[in-house]
C-alpha cells in the first residue's frame, strides 16, 4: 500500500493534501506523526470524565489536524462532534463519538499498515 492508497482507505483527499504541502514526503511525515497525537485519547477520557469543555477542545483539535491532513471522513465526523460539544453535552454526543471512534480506528489502522509495509517507525 502506498500513501495514495492509504488515503483511499481512510476516505481522505490525497490530491488536496499534496497540493497544500507540496510534497508526498512531507505529507508522509505528518501522516506518520498523526498516530502520536494525543487528541483522540484526550477526547475519549474527557467524555468519560464528563469534562465537556476539554472534550470540545480535543475534538476541535482533532478536527483541525484532520482538515490539515485532508482526512476527510474523520474530519467530517469530528467536526459534527465538535459542534455538538460546543455548548456542552447534547443528546447526540454518544452516537457522534461512536462515529468518530470508528473513523479514527480505520484511519489509524490504515496508517499502521502503511508503516509496516514501508518499514517505517
Low-confidence segments: none
Kindly, what is the distance between the CA atoms of the first and last residues, rounded to a whole number of angstroms?
16 Å
Name the quaternary structure.
single chain
Rg on CA atoms, Å: 14 Å
Structure, described:
By secondary structure, the chain is mainly alpha-helical. Helix content is 79%, strand content 0%. It is built from 7 helices and no strands. Helix 1 runs antiparallel to helix 7 (93-118), helix 4 (39-48) runs antiparallel to helix 5 (52-69) and helix 5 packs antiparallel against helix 6 (72-85).
Please name the defining characteristics of this protein:
about 120 residues, mainly alpha, about 0% strand
Any chance you could write out the topology, listing elements then pairs?
Layout: H1 3-10, H2 14-21, H3 24-34, H4 39-48, H5 52-69, H6 72-85, H7 93-118
Helix pairs in contact: 1-7, 4-5, 5-6, 6-7
Offer a concise description of the structure:
With 121 residues, this protein is an all-alpha fold. It has helices at 3-10, 14-21, 24-34, 39-48, 52-69, 72-85, 93-118.
